[in-house]
């Protein structure tokens, strides 16, 4: 069964007499699937072991009578009050040692044994009841795992789990002492029981302990999800899929890891989240998050929550202008969403998310949003039918690493330097050039890409170095950046001249560097002046060709960007964070050298993206601006020009029958 559009529905928030009206309105809108149940534990189990699923059955059947199928969420992001009072150790403890209380959501410790027993009982009962239900098509485990945990849990259960994780990783306390460099500040341990979760200290932390803690927390969340996946797989019909709704670049848990246990990944997309700068998040950031989720499992995904109105908790975001919700929907589809589920069906009258608006307003009467999305659904569905399940290859890959991100969070060097910030600089240049991008982990297949960009490869090991070496030797075009090869996997500095094992591939050494605090560095390339930011590696080329040099400071004339031929390929080293002009110059050089093709040229604020279909390719032309735009297209497309209203979009098929 194929699904294209759905909504997130909370029948428990409304009188049962209303459900039929909702189902009729959904059917008329073109809705085929709803997600339900992911926050309704107390409605399912008001007392321990007393299950009430009749209401859910009735909701499922009411919808099914209108051809609408159900995805069930396990409600484990909101343990009930009765459970928390019975087993208060379910509540998480923050890094100050304070217990976080009941009253919001995700007030749970994910290693807590009592909590897992409660989950096992409920999820088993849910699976027994709905695991073979003809109108339940799949499951979502929990909700936005890692997202609500501003601070992870530092309770005694988590501390014990951390010790077990360390014991398994290092085997002996001597090895842990070596790997963490505990000789510094007399931090040596003589027993694993002396190790604590890294709570607030008077001053500083051991960077190796912090990196392992972040990895442990990610592994714990993945284990928490896997625990539920195993129960569902044990009891449910294999035709029911299992997924989880991720949050783009949220970094508490590795989505590469979550993806391994799921049939596909889902993502929640809120372009105008109230947390974003008005009027909404930058277009390239929205595109990047979609590409990232596709990359985390290397396949298309669902949007499990696509913005359907004003967002808000205490404060509210902007009201999406006419066209904007459709534009954002089209952008999700253009980057690999096979199914789009809107959040939420109807604005709720109560609770924290009273102002997180749905397709229907509080009144329940269809208005502008309903009419607009009806047109959008009708317009996009034919293209979604043609492209569903087919991934679209890209020529450029960006290597994304949670470990590198964690290590840079622990020691950002320059307070303005972030791993994601640098990733986004490279992505943005590609986005502006209308070049499709895949994200992949450093475990992924590099050989698929003509150009591979690996920002801030700060932690290196011989296996990773060998992988980069082989990629270049066999003809790849590799970009490595500043601070490559500084540390090993446990966050200890390598005792080598930078960049270490990749020196010959890059044809350089990095004898010195400079942190550009509150200043930028003039950089000269082909007689033009640009700017480097945050950091500068001072390069000493051996075989590399110098492309750009420092044009200021005491090291004026020193190379900062180089390119080296190695084997059949080329390796670039970018020793600073380029400003926008320098990045554009660099990217045009890279795309030319690697012979990467673009989808074409488009006016500022207009995005081009491509989906491969069964018969032909489809170009999505997305106008993110508030003015009409006309876009000229190449001869490979069946229209040579499209005109778009403000926030409009168009989908254009390829001219020929043949696919490349
Ligand atoms: Zn805990």
Could you characterize the architecture of this molecule?
It is a single chain. This protein is α/β, with parallel strands linked by helices. It is built from 17 helices and 25 strands. Strands 10, 11, 12, 13, 14, 15, 16, 17, 18, 19 and 20 form an 11-stranded mixed β-sheet that branches. Strands 5-4-3-2-1-9-8-7-6 form a 9-stranded parallel β-sheet, with helices on one face. The protein has a 3-stranded antiparallel β-sheet with strand order 21-22-25, with helices on one face. Helix 11 (324-334) links the parallel strand 8 (301-307) and strand 9 (337-343). Helix 10 (283-297) crosses helix 14 (419-432). The model has no long low-confidence stretch (mean pLDDT 96). Zinc ion is lined by residues 92, 109, 111-112, 153, 155, 157-158.
